[in-house]
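Title: Prediction job returns without error message
Component: structure pipeline
Severity: low
Priority: P3
Assignee: unassigned

Description:
Job completed but the reporter wants confirmation the result is attached to the right record. Sequence as submitted:
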Amino acid sequence: MIPKVSNIVKYYIYSTLNNDCFNKLNKTRKDFVVSVLWHILSIKGRINFLQLGRFSQSSEQTYRNQFEKPFDFFS
């Protein structure tokens, strides 16, 4: 099982994504984005909602619901 995201990793992800778009998000959404990026970097093999749900604290349905909401990475 993959451990929770450490504070150092959170700091690096936050500093990389530190822009206007990311700063406008609420804390819950920021934590979700950090969690997704952490799990994408740490899960070996194919990444899908089932794998994200298996290796994280959140369920598969949580990932499906969150990915339905729009998020602009490029602005």
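Comment from assignee: result matches the submitted record. Residues 7-68 form one domain.
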